[in-house]
């Protein structure tokens, strides 16, 4: 991977060999789209704005490689993914720079994501040895007399991967790694804002030994490349991470095919009166404002016992005001920009709406360009957007409760159900609350913003369809295939 001269509006940054990848080669499509740094709008380069006709070429090429191309056995898949994990770590500096420059992560956050992506690839490699089946109990019925059989797990075929901007490396790895481990081909449509990271990752995969014909990267818009990809007749499974409304559009465009969708959250944390108050406050602040709140696991709503609410709010405000907002490249920066000034304006408008309806802004609330100060609100009306929708920005709502039953009811009063947290010294209480919260995961004495890449990841209600996490994605990206033998009489 090399660094080349960049446009005069930006400092040098890694560039891909071409603006897209399909049919086993790097190509520049008929149209291009710019990639800009959200911090200052500087131009970083251009990638292909893939057209529906070009998407068709990409999907057709990957499908041909899967159905009639060279065999790619499990042991070779394992070797390639293990090699890719090592290469990701060797290319940490390049990947960190690309990810931070085109996206919203600080250098520290981007550096940590490189390590997670390598871990995801390592876990994916391990799954190639676990694609096992089992024998079937034909003797359990009289109709099975004289027969024996088994099933194996076979790849679904072509996986369409649609990825978001907020984790532009690890969430690509979470879709591409399991899909390749299972023996599929992949057509990746990265987020419009962060295509360079995906292209850099694709180059690493090819260098590691992934057959070029089995992988395509088609940057472009959701309405153009995205819609054409998910609706393509040769795509067998769509794996999508993004918002609920876009998820509905993906489902309509995909039609009757398998989908895996992670669609966000409006995550709650409960802080009981016996909690370690200061530790809970720091965990909540870290969970709410990492990546400027642009994380599906971010803490958005906190329900705290009225007995400790005043002190807890002071702790949270103090910790929030200690966060450093600044340029992504500064290693001292805690909070960088949102992915665009438009998104920062939207967050500011939601805060203003809540304030005009009676909420108190305890700290923050200001915006400058794409930057929005981390904001703590109290007294928020139950129907305000910052309570009911996923804000995907640096805003935290804190509300007191009198009983645990009330806190559980309010935490569940959302159309999302991704993850939640509870802070308490009483294990029995924590387990009872965990059982009653309608979410995909409950973190005890931790914030909702915790995940390891081996977890089954997802949740009920608007939070998605199916589960990600490497093992569970591999299972979803394979199908059981039965072989039955009728023995001669």
Task: Report the helical percentage.
Answer: 25-40%
Number of continuous helical runs: 15
What is the count of β-strands?
24
How big is the Rg?
Answer: 24 Å
Query: What do the pLDDT scores average to?
Result: 95
Strand order of the largest sheet: 16-19-20-15-14-21-22
Distance between the termini: 63 Å
Description:
- This protein has 489 residues and is an alpha/beta fold.
- It has 15 helices and 24 strands.
- A seven-stranded mixed β-sheet has the order 16-19-20-15-14-21-22, sandwiched between helices. Strands 11-10-9-12-13-23 form a six-stranded mixed β-sheet, with helices on both faces. A three-stranded antiparallel β-sheet has the order 7-8-24.
- The radius of gyration is 24 Å and the shape is globular.
Structure in a nutshell:
With 489 residues, this protein is of the alpha/beta class. It is 38% helix and 22% strand.
SSE order and pairing:
Layout: E1 3-4, E2 13-14, E3 20-22, E4 25-27, E5 32-36, E6 43-48, H1 52-68, H2 74-90, H3 92-102, H4 107-127, E7 134-135, E8 147-155, E9 158-162, H5 170-181, E10 185-189, H6 195-208, E11 215-217, H7 222-230, E12 237-241, H8 244-254, E13 258-262, E14 267-271, H9 277-289, E15 299-305, H10 309-321, H11 341-356, E16 360-363, E17 367-368, E18 371-372, E19 375-378, H12 385-388, E20 395-401, H13 404-412, E21 419-423, H14 427-436, E22 441-444, E23 464-465, H15 470-476, E24 478-486
Parallel strand pairs: 9-10, 9-12, 10-11, 12-13, 14-15, 14-21, 15-20, 19-20, 21-22
Antiparallel strand pairs: 1-2, 3-4, 5-6, 7-8, 8-24, 13-23, 16-19, 17-18
